[in-house]
Amino acid sequence: MANLRAGLIGLGMMGRHHARVLSSLEGVDLVAVADPAGDTFGVAGSRPLLATISELIEQRIDYCVVAVPTRFHEEVALALASAGVHALIEKPISHDAASSLRIVEAFENAGLIGGVGHIERYNSAIQQARVRIGNGDLGDIYQVVTRRIGPFPGRIADVGVIKDLATHDVDLTTWVTQQKFVTVSAHTGFKSGREHEDLVAAIGKLSFGTVTNHLVNWLSPLKERTTVITGERGTFVADTLTADLTFFANGSVETTWSELSQFRGVSEGDSIRYAFPKPEPLKVEHESFRDAIMTGDGEVVSLRQGMEIVHVAEACIQSASNAGTAVSIPVTTQNQ
């Protein structure tokens, strides 16, 4: 079978990493790249450096990775769908729910494979947590808490921290628990002088009763990517920066010191940091999308799933604009 012909549009911070992975991806030839602002990071090499999606399509590509700013996702995606080109679109799928739906319908009507780059699904710590939760290692899931904080990204100006960063946590929470958001409540802050929020504290409730909490900001010199999943048998702590997963078990040994035991709730048990392979998540994402095109077997975050993450993000924004009032999200619209 001939290699797939891939294109890449958007050569910024994320685009350069896509170019690096595509350049060495088995079964794929990166044949051309495009960015109207040029090739800041010098990723084109000997490949054609183009300016528009139309020029890229003319290179007879089979699929395209879309890493342009979010506000351009719809324009680029609809051009690809019209040309019969599969697409892997960086998250979020688009800047709002209406444009996301237009992208979804265009690809579905054309019978094309579309994916959204919610990369945390491909992090081995999160994948391990999902498998172990599915096996019943935690029993019933009570709570999911995420912290995603870091420095201000000057390159992102078209959406706020909710649609840019918090969508990672919304997606990984629904995926790892196999539940859907039914309500969200959020408060935001605007500290950097821009029109979009740069911090959010959100509380959610999932379809089986799990409670979630998400703290996200662009205002911290400390970079943290932590997910804490608590269930009836203990807690998983996943660090997606290091791809570590640690299990803290509920204890079975009685605490005999009465003054201490009355404050503890569940007792402390064993802790285990699991050992498992840790491939680069971006490479796993690309391999999965390639396989979805070539064999139909790849695990892809579908465009419709990506759209529903935008629905949850917009519910957070709506809640924050109304003093944190809880907003309901119909579970029938979600497809995980």
As laid out across the biggest beta sheet, the strand order is 14-13-12-11-7-10-9-8-15
- Output the radius of gyration: 21 Å
Number of strands: 15
Terminus-to-terminus distance: 32 Å
H/E element order: EHEEHEHEHEHEHEEEEEEHEHHE
Low-pLDDT stretches are: none
Number of helices: 9
Shape: globular
The helix/strand class is alpha/beta
Helix content: 25-40%
Average pLDDT works out at 93
Percent of residues in beta strands: 25-35%
Please outline the major beta sheet.
Answer: 9 strands, mixed
Could you give the topology of this structure?
Elements: E1 4-9, H1 13-23, E2 28-34, E3 49-50, H2 53-57, E4 63-66, H3 73-83, E5 86-90, H4 97-110, E6 114-117, H5 124-134, E7 141-149, H6 161-177, E8 181-189, E9 199-206, E10 211-217, E11 224-231, E12 234-239, E13 244-250, H7 258-264, E14 268-273, H8 281-294, H9 303-321, E15 327-328
Parallel strand pairs: 1-2, 1-4, 2-3, 4-5, 5-6, 7-10
Antiparallel strand pairs: 7-11, 8-9, 8-15, 9-10, 11-12, 12-13, 13-14
Helix pairs in contact: 3-4, 4-9, 5-6, 6-9
